[in-house]
Amino acid sequence: MRLEPRFLPALALAVASCATVPSVADREFRAGDYAGAAAAYEEALRTDPRARANPALCLRLGLAYARPDTPAHDLKRAAAVLKDLETRFPKTQEARQAAALIPQIEHEAALEAAASVAAAKIQDLEDALAMLQGEVRTLDAAVKAGAEQAQHLRAMLAEREAQLRRVRDELEQLKRIDLQRAP
């Protein structure tokens, strides 16, 4: 079978694109662009049968998802990829590495979930605290207003008592005057 020269560019492009996707992914992985590497590995697995048969590529994909503090960080996806690697390539070095990593990743995922629940509880408590602080400010204002009103009422009471004493004194004076006039 002889290859037609007109098909050579298309064949070269097909071969180059198959070889390029994993190498681009590897280059991004080594450079620390784990989100780019994960996307490129996923594309390679989707389009390249040789990539699907490559346990090292699957391991690096799982590691890209497992990497914390990156946009690609997804521990559930990392565990799923590594479990799939362990199932599909059970006798490889990569499968042994995946088997060692899976419990750690699952533990980290559980810790992240617990931290997320704790963060939600903390936020709820902070919201409740803010609401209570608002209520305390309202109650403090009411107490201050009540204290001012009580002070005002005490002043009025003292004034009324002073008026009452004056009226009693005048009444007593009038009684004495009345008693002195009485024949």
Describe the SSE topology:
Blueprint: H1 8-31, H2 34-47, H3 49-52, H4 55-66, H5 75-88, H6 93-181
Helix pairs in contact: 1-2, 2-4, 4-5, 4-6, 5-6
Describe this structure in words.
There is one protein chain. The chain has 183 residues and is mainly alpha-helical. The chain has a domain at 5-123: Alpha Horseshoe (Serine Threonine Protein Phosphatase 5, Tetratricopeptide repeat). It has helices at 8-31, 34-47, 49-52, 55-66, 75-88, 93-181. Helix 2 runs antiparallel to helix 4 (55-66) and helix 4 packs parallel to helix 6 (93-181). Residues 1-19 have low confidence and may be disordered.
Question: What's the quick description here?
Answer:
With 183 residues, the protein is an all-alpha fold. The chain is 86% helix and 0% strand.
